[in-house]
Amino acid sequence: MKEIKYEDLVKLPEDSYVLIDIRDEGLRAYGMIPGAEAIDLTLDENIIKENIDLIPKDKTLVFYCEIGRKTRELDDEYYLSDRICLGLEGGYIGYVKASMAKDEESKERQHKAEESIRKKFHKPLFTPFAKACKTYKLIEEGDRIAVCISGGKDSMLMAKLFQEIQRHRQCNFKLTFLVMDPGYNKENRALIESNAKALGIPITIFDSNIFDSVDNIEKSPCYICARMRRGYLYSKAKELGCNKIALGHHYDDVIETILMGMMHGAQIQTMMPKLHSTNFEGMELIRPLYLIRESDIIAWRDYNNLHFLQCACHFTDTCTTCHEDGTTSSKRLETKKLIAELKKDNPFIESNIFKSVENVNLDTVIAYKKDGVRHHFLDEY
Predict the structure, then answer these.
(1) What residue ranges do the domains of the chain occupy?
(2) Percent of the chain at pLDDT above 90?
(3) pTM for the full model?
(4) Which of 180, 266, 188 is nearest to 226 (CA)?
(5) Which architecture, in CATH terms, is 108-335?
(6) 148-173 per-position pLDDT tens digit
(7) pLDDT digits (tens, 9 = 90+) for 281-303
(8) Are strands 17-21 and 37-38 parallel, antiparallel or unpaired?
(9) Which fold does the domain 3-101 belong to in CATH?
Protein backbone atom coordinates (compact mmCIF):
# COMPACT_ATOMS: atom_id res chain seq x y z
CA MET A 1 0.00 0.00 0.00
CA LYS A 2 1.34 3.42 -0.95
CA GLU A 3 2.22 5.58 2.07
CA ILE A 4 1.84 9.24 2.88
CA LYS A 5 3.57 11.29 5.58
CA TYR A 6 1.39 13.02 8.13
CA GLU A 7 2.95 16.39 7.21
CA ASP A 8 1.77 15.87 3.60
CA LEU A 9 -1.62 14.51 4.62
CA VAL A 10 -2.62 17.63 6.52
CA LYS A 11 -1.96 19.70 3.39
CA LEU A 12 -4.85 17.93 1.65
CA PRO A 13 -8.45 19.18 1.98
CA GLU A 14 -9.91 17.73 5.20
CA ASP A 15 -13.03 16.50 3.42
CA SER A 16 -11.02 14.48 0.86
CA TYR A 17 -9.93 11.64 3.17
CA VAL A 18 -10.90 9.62 6.22
CA LEU A 19 -8.36 8.36 8.75
CA ILE A 20 -8.94 4.76 9.88
CA ASP A 21 -7.32 3.41 13.04
CA ILE A 22 -6.76 -0.36 12.78
CA ARG A 23 -5.02 -0.81 16.15
CA ASP A 24 -6.51 -2.83 18.99
CA GLU A 25 -8.72 -1.34 21.70
CA GLY A 26 -5.89 -1.16 24.23
CA LEU A 27 -3.70 0.95 21.98
CA ARG A 28 -6.58 3.20 20.95
CA ALA A 29 -7.25 3.90 24.62
CA TYR A 30 -3.86 5.63 24.71
CA GLY A 31 -4.95 8.07 22.05
CA MET A 32 -6.13 8.33 18.45
CA ILE A 33 -5.46 10.86 15.73
CA PRO A 34 -8.22 13.49 15.99
CA GLY A 35 -11.12 12.71 13.65
CA ALA A 36 -10.06 9.11 12.98
CA GLU A 37 -12.51 6.22 12.85
CA ALA A 38 -11.74 2.82 14.37
CA ILE A 39 -12.25 -0.36 12.35
CA ASP A 40 -11.40 -3.73 13.87
CA LEU A 41 -9.69 -5.79 11.15
CA THR A 42 -9.97 -8.97 13.24
CA LEU A 43 -13.71 -9.08 12.51
CA ASP A 44 -15.31 -11.07 9.69
CA GLU A 45 -14.36 -9.58 6.31
CA ASN A 46 -18.01 -9.01 5.36
CA ILE A 47 -18.51 -6.93 8.52
CA ILE A 48 -15.36 -4.94 7.73
CA LYS A 49 -16.64 -4.28 4.22
CA GLU A 50 -20.00 -3.12 5.58
CA ASN A 51 -18.22 -0.63 7.84
CA ILE A 52 -16.02 0.65 5.03
CA ASP A 53 -18.98 0.94 2.66
CA LEU A 54 -20.51 3.46 5.05
CA ILE A 55 -17.70 5.86 4.11
CA PRO A 56 -18.44 7.80 0.88
CA LYS A 57 -16.65 6.36 -2.15
CA ASP A 58 -15.10 9.70 -3.07
CA LYS A 59 -13.07 9.74 0.17
CA THR A 60 -9.52 8.39 0.26
CA LEU A 61 -9.06 5.86 3.04
CA VAL A 62 -5.91 6.54 5.07
CA PHE A 63 -5.13 3.59 7.33
CA TYR A 64 -2.76 3.68 10.28
CA CYS A 65 -1.51 1.15 12.83
CA GLU A 66 1.12 1.74 15.53
CA ILE A 67 4.31 2.09 13.46
CA GLY A 68 3.12 1.47 9.87
CA ARG A 69 3.96 -2.20 9.52
CA LYS A 70 0.45 -3.62 9.46
CA THR A 71 -0.96 -1.11 7.00
CA ARG A 72 1.62 -2.20 4.43
CA GLU A 73 0.06 -5.67 4.51
CA LEU A 74 -3.42 -4.51 3.48
CA ASP A 75 -2.93 -4.41 -0.31
CA ASP A 76 -4.62 -7.70 -1.16
CA GLU A 77 -7.74 -7.33 1.01
CA TYR A 78 -10.84 -7.72 -1.16
CA TYR A 79 -12.87 -5.15 0.78
CA LEU A 80 -10.46 -2.44 -0.35
CA SER A 81 -10.42 -3.35 -4.05
CA ASP A 82 -12.73 -0.54 -5.17
CA ARG A 83 -11.31 2.18 -2.91
CA ILE A 84 -8.43 4.63 -3.06
CA CYS A 85 -6.28 3.67 -0.07
CA LEU A 86 -3.13 4.99 1.57
CA GLY A 87 -1.12 3.99 4.60
CA LEU A 88 0.11 6.60 7.07
CA GLU A 89 3.90 6.45 7.07
CA GLY A 90 5.19 5.60 10.53
CA GLY A 91 1.65 4.96 11.79
CA TYR A 92 0.45 6.58 15.01
CA ILE A 93 4.06 7.02 16.15
CA GLY A 94 4.75 8.96 12.95
CA TYR A 95 1.83 11.27 13.73
CA VAL A 96 3.07 11.76 17.29
CA LYS A 97 6.60 12.61 16.15
CA ALA A 98 5.25 15.14 13.65
CA SER A 99 3.11 16.75 16.36
CA MET A 100 5.97 16.90 18.85
CA ALA A 101 8.34 18.42 16.32
CA LYS A 102 6.24 21.60 16.25
CA ASP A 103 7.01 22.38 19.89
CA GLU A 104 10.42 20.81 20.35
CA GLU A 105 12.33 24.06 19.89
CA SER A 106 10.45 25.99 22.55
CA LYS A 107 10.26 25.68 26.34
CA GLU A 108 6.53 26.22 26.29
CA ARG A 109 5.63 22.53 26.45
CA GLN A 110 7.90 21.88 29.43
CA HIS A 111 6.70 24.99 31.25
CA LYS A 112 3.04 24.14 30.70
CA ALA A 113 3.49 20.54 31.88
CA GLU A 114 5.28 21.65 35.05
CA GLU A 115 2.87 24.50 35.75
CA SER A 116 -0.10 22.15 35.42
CA ILE A 117 1.39 19.84 38.08
CA ARG A 118 1.76 22.78 40.47
CA LYS A 119 -1.69 24.23 39.87
CA LYS A 120 -4.44 22.42 37.93
CA PHE A 121 -3.30 18.87 38.80
CA HIS A 122 -1.70 19.52 42.18
CA LYS A 123 -4.47 17.78 44.14
CA PRO A 124 -5.00 14.67 41.94
CA LEU A 125 -1.32 14.14 41.07
CA PHE A 126 1.27 15.79 43.30
CA THR A 127 -0.67 15.39 46.57
CA PRO A 128 -1.10 11.57 46.29
CA PHE A 129 2.49 11.28 45.01
CA ALA A 130 3.81 13.08 48.09
CA LYS A 131 1.42 11.14 50.34
CA ALA A 132 2.65 7.78 49.00
CA CYS A 133 6.27 8.85 49.45
CA LYS A 134 5.58 9.85 53.06
CA THR A 135 3.19 7.02 54.03
CA TYR A 136 5.36 4.22 52.68
CA LYS A 137 8.72 6.00 53.32
CA LEU A 138 9.71 5.74 49.66
CA ILE A 139 12.20 8.64 49.69
CA GLU A 140 14.77 8.86 52.46
CA GLU A 141 17.71 11.10 53.24
CA GLY A 142 20.72 10.37 51.04
CA ASP A 143 18.84 8.20 48.53
CA ARG A 144 20.08 7.89 44.96
CA ILE A 145 16.99 6.92 42.98
CA ALA A 146 16.97 5.56 39.44
CA VAL A 147 13.67 6.77 37.95
CA CYS A 148 12.98 4.07 35.35
CA ILE A 149 11.37 5.51 32.22
CA SER A 150 9.72 3.20 29.72
CA GLY A 151 8.48 6.08 27.58
CA GLY A 152 4.82 5.73 28.53
CA LYS A 153 2.58 8.29 30.22
CA ASP A 154 3.03 6.83 33.72
CA SER A 155 6.82 6.83 33.86
CA MET A 156 7.11 10.21 32.14
CA LEU A 157 4.75 11.79 34.67
CA MET A 158 6.63 10.05 37.49
CA ALA A 159 9.84 11.72 36.30
CA LYS A 160 8.19 15.16 36.37
CA LEU A 161 6.74 14.54 39.85
CA PHE A 162 10.18 13.53 41.13
CA GLN A 163 11.63 16.74 39.72
CA GLU A 164 8.86 18.72 41.43
CA ILE A 165 9.25 17.09 44.85
CA GLN A 166 13.03 17.51 44.67
CA ARG A 167 12.46 21.21 44.05
CA HIS A 168 10.78 21.44 47.49
CA ARG A 169 14.11 20.45 49.14
CA GLN A 170 12.50 18.77 52.15
CA CYS A 171 14.79 15.76 51.79
CA ASN A 172 18.26 15.46 50.31
CA PHE A 173 18.28 12.85 47.53
CA LYS A 174 19.59 12.48 44.00
CA LEU A 175 17.90 11.33 40.80
CA THR A 176 19.01 9.47 37.70
CA PHE A 177 16.45 9.22 34.90
CA LEU A 178 17.15 5.80 33.45
CA VAL A 179 15.89 4.50 30.10
CA MET A 180 16.64 0.97 28.99
CA ASP A 181 16.40 0.20 25.28
CA PRO A 182 15.58 -3.54 25.13
CA GLY A 183 15.60 -3.49 21.33
CA TYR A 184 13.13 -0.77 20.33
CA ASN A 185 12.71 0.06 16.69
CA LYS A 186 14.21 3.43 15.78
CA GLU A 187 10.80 5.17 15.74
CA ASN A 188 10.00 4.25 19.34
CA ARG A 189 13.44 5.17 20.64
CA ALA A 190 13.26 8.51 18.85
CA LEU A 191 9.87 9.20 20.43
CA ILE A 192 11.22 8.59 23.94
CA GLU A 193 14.18 10.87 23.30
CA SER A 194 11.94 13.56 21.79
CA ASN A 195 9.50 13.50 24.72
CA ALA A 196 12.27 13.59 27.30
CA LYS A 197 13.86 16.59 25.59
CA ALA A 198 10.54 18.41 25.28
CA LEU A 199 9.72 17.84 28.97
CA GLY A 200 13.18 18.70 30.28
CA ILE A 201 14.04 15.21 31.57
CA PRO A 202 17.81 14.50 31.34
CA ILE A 203 17.68 10.79 30.53
CA THR A 204 20.48 8.23 30.61
CA ILE A 205 19.91 5.54 27.97
CA PHE A 206 21.53 2.13 27.95
CA ASP A 207 21.04 -0.77 25.54
CA SER A 208 20.17 -4.41 26.18
CA ASN A 209 19.25 -7.30 23.90
CA ILE A 210 16.21 -8.52 25.81
CA PHE A 211 13.82 -8.54 22.84
CA ASP A 212 16.25 -10.69 20.85
CA SER A 213 16.79 -12.99 23.84
CA VAL A 214 13.10 -13.79 24.26
CA ASP A 215 12.31 -13.81 20.53
CA ASN A 216 12.17 -17.60 20.29
CA ILE A 217 10.57 -18.33 23.65
CA GLU A 218 7.10 -19.79 23.17
CA LYS A 219 5.98 -20.23 26.79
CA SER A 220 5.37 -17.05 28.84
CA PRO A 221 7.62 -14.70 26.81
CA CYS A 222 6.02 -11.62 28.43
CA TYR A 223 6.77 -12.90 31.94
CA ILE A 224 10.38 -13.71 31.09
CA CYS A 225 10.83 -10.39 29.27
CA ALA A 226 9.45 -8.47 32.26
CA ARG A 227 11.71 -10.25 34.74
CA MET A 228 14.75 -9.69 32.54
CA ARG A 229 13.95 -6.01 32.15
CA ARG A 230 13.77 -5.53 35.90
CA GLY A 231 17.06 -7.37 36.36
CA TYR A 232 18.80 -5.14 33.81
CA LEU A 233 17.40 -2.02 35.48
CA TYR A 234 18.58 -3.12 38.92
CA SER A 235 22.03 -3.94 37.56
CA LYS A 236 22.48 -0.62 35.71
CA ALA A 237 21.08 1.41 38.60
CA LYS A 238 23.49 -0.22 41.03
CA GLU A 239 26.36 0.35 38.61
CA LEU A 240 25.45 4.07 38.59
CA GLY A 241 25.54 4.21 42.39
CA CYS A 242 21.78 4.14 42.99
CA ASN A 243 20.15 2.30 45.91
CA LYS A 244 16.58 2.38 44.61
CA ILE A 245 14.71 1.99 41.34
CA ALA A 246 11.31 3.68 40.88
CA LEU A 247 8.66 2.13 38.65
CA GLY A 248 5.52 3.86 37.37
CA HIS A 249 2.76 1.51 38.54
CA HIS A 250 -0.34 3.41 39.65
CA TYR A 251 -3.46 2.78 41.76
CA ASP A 252 -5.37 1.12 38.92
CA ASP A 253 -2.47 -1.27 38.28
CA VAL A 254 -2.64 -2.29 41.94
CA ILE A 255 -6.34 -3.12 42.03
CA GLU A 256 -6.22 -4.85 38.63
CA THR A 257 -3.33 -7.00 39.85
CA ILE A 258 -5.28 -8.00 42.97
CA LEU A 259 -8.26 -9.13 40.88
CA MET A 260 -6.17 -10.88 38.23
CA GLY A 261 -4.27 -12.77 40.90
CA MET A 262 -7.55 -14.16 42.20
CA MET A 263 -9.15 -14.86 38.82
CA HIS A 264 -6.16 -16.14 36.87
CA GLY A 265 -3.57 -17.12 39.48
CA ALA A 266 -5.76 -18.55 42.27
CA GLN A 267 -3.95 -16.41 44.84
CA ILE A 268 -4.37 -13.22 46.85
CA GLN A 269 -1.48 -10.82 46.42
CA THR A 270 -0.83 -7.22 45.52
CA MET A 271 1.83 -4.95 44.11
CA MET A 272 3.74 -3.68 47.14
CA PRO A 273 4.55 0.06 47.38
CA LYS A 274 8.17 -0.94 47.99
CA LEU A 275 10.20 -4.12 48.33
CA HIS A 276 13.76 -5.29 48.75
CA SER A 277 15.52 -6.88 45.81
CA THR A 278 16.25 -10.56 46.34
CA ASN A 279 19.06 -10.65 43.77
CA PHE A 280 20.70 -7.24 44.18
CA GLU A 281 21.81 -6.66 47.76
CA GLY A 282 21.05 -3.22 49.15
CA MET A 283 18.66 -2.34 46.31
CA GLU A 284 14.98 -1.47 46.71
CA LEU A 285 12.07 -1.04 44.30
CA ILE A 286 9.61 1.78 44.99
CA ARG A 287 6.27 2.73 43.39
CA PRO A 288 5.57 6.43 44.09
CA LEU A 289 2.46 6.57 41.83
CA TYR A 290 0.82 4.00 44.12
CA LEU A 291 -2.07 6.30 45.11
CA ILE A 292 -2.56 8.08 41.75
CA ARG A 293 -5.51 7.20 39.54
CA GLU A 294 -4.86 6.42 35.88
CA SER A 295 -7.69 8.70 34.78
CA ASP A 296 -5.86 11.65 36.35
CA ILE A 297 -2.64 10.72 34.54
CA ILE A 298 -4.57 10.62 31.27
CA ALA A 299 -6.18 13.99 32.05
CA TRP A 300 -2.72 15.54 32.63
CA ARG A 301 -1.40 14.01 29.42
CA ASP A 302 -4.32 15.26 27.32
CA TYR A 303 -4.40 18.71 28.92
CA ASN A 304 -0.78 19.20 27.88
CA ASN A 305 -1.33 17.62 24.44
CA LEU A 306 1.37 15.03 25.13
CA HIS A 307 1.78 11.79 23.19
CA PHE A 308 3.71 8.96 24.78
CA LEU A 309 4.99 5.55 23.82
CA GLN A 310 2.65 2.64 24.35
CA CYS A 311 4.14 -0.84 24.66
CA ALA A 312 6.90 -1.40 22.10
CA CYS A 313 6.84 -5.18 22.22
CA HIS A 314 9.17 -6.95 19.80
CA PHE A 315 6.57 -9.62 19.05
CA THR A 316 3.60 -7.55 18.02
CA ASP A 317 2.53 -3.95 17.45
CA THR A 318 -0.59 -4.56 19.50
CA CYS A 319 0.78 -5.87 22.79
CA THR A 320 -0.49 -3.12 25.05
CA THR A 321 0.71 -3.98 28.53
CA CYS A 322 3.94 -5.83 29.19
CA HIS A 323 3.58 -5.61 32.96
CA GLU A 324 6.05 -7.12 35.37
CA ASP A 325 3.65 -9.97 36.09
CA GLY A 326 3.70 -10.97 32.42
CA THR A 327 -0.02 -10.46 31.95
CA THR A 328 -1.25 -9.96 28.40
CA SER A 329 -3.10 -6.86 27.24
CA SER A 330 -6.34 -8.81 26.83
CA LYS A 331 -6.38 -9.97 30.47
CA ARG A 332 -5.66 -6.53 31.87
CA LEU A 333 -8.13 -4.82 29.54
CA GLU A 334 -10.70 -7.46 30.48
CA THR A 335 -10.12 -6.69 34.16
CA LYS A 336 -10.41 -2.92 33.57
CA LYS A 337 -13.79 -3.50 31.93
CA LEU A 338 -14.93 -5.76 34.77
CA ILE A 339 -14.08 -3.13 37.38
CA ALA A 340 -15.83 -0.42 35.34
CA GLU A 341 -18.94 -2.62 35.12
CA LEU A 342 -18.93 -3.35 38.85
CA LYS A 343 -18.53 0.35 39.59
CA LYS A 344 -21.91 1.05 37.99
CA ASP A 345 -23.61 -0.67 40.94
CA ASN A 346 -21.01 0.08 43.61
CA PRO A 347 -19.14 3.40 43.33
CA PHE A 348 -16.75 2.29 46.08
CA ILE A 349 -15.65 -0.91 44.34
CA GLU A 350 -12.16 0.37 43.49
CA SER A 351 -11.28 1.58 46.98
CA ASN A 352 -12.78 -1.58 48.46
CA ILE A 353 -10.51 -3.75 46.29
CA PHE A 354 -7.51 -1.60 47.24
CA LYS A 355 -8.28 -1.71 50.97
CA SER A 356 -9.07 -5.43 50.97
CA VAL A 357 -5.38 -6.36 51.10
CA GLU A 358 -4.90 -4.01 54.08
CA ASN A 359 -7.68 -5.73 56.04
CA VAL A 360 -6.78 -9.42 55.85
CA ASN A 361 -8.16 -11.37 58.82
CA LEU A 362 -5.86 -14.40 59.21
CA ASP A 363 -8.41 -16.07 61.54
CA THR A 364 -10.67 -16.53 58.51
CA VAL A 365 -7.99 -17.60 56.03
CA ILE A 366 -7.60 -21.32 55.33
CA ALA A 367 -3.94 -21.07 54.35
CA TYR A 368 -1.30 -18.43 53.68
CA LYS A 369 2.40 -18.13 52.91
CA LYS A 370 4.96 -16.22 54.94
CA ASP A 371 8.60 -16.06 53.80
CA GLY A 372 7.91 -18.94 51.43
CA VAL A 373 6.53 -21.18 54.18
CA ARG A 374 2.92 -22.33 53.90
CA HIS A 375 0.76 -22.10 57.03
CA HIS A 376 -2.59 -23.91 57.35
CA PHE A 377 -5.38 -23.11 59.79
CA LEU A 378 -5.33 -26.72 61.02
CA ASP A 379 -1.77 -26.19 62.29
CA GLU A 380 -3.17 -24.28 65.27
CA TYR A 381 -6.79 -25.41 65.25
Answers:
(1) 3-101, 108-335
(2) 61
(3) 0.83
(4) 180
(5) 3-Layer(aba) Sandwich (3.40)
(6) 999 899 999 999 999 999 999 889 99
(7) 999 999 999 999 999 999 999 99
(8) parallel
(9) Oxidized Rhodanese; domain 1 (3.40.250)
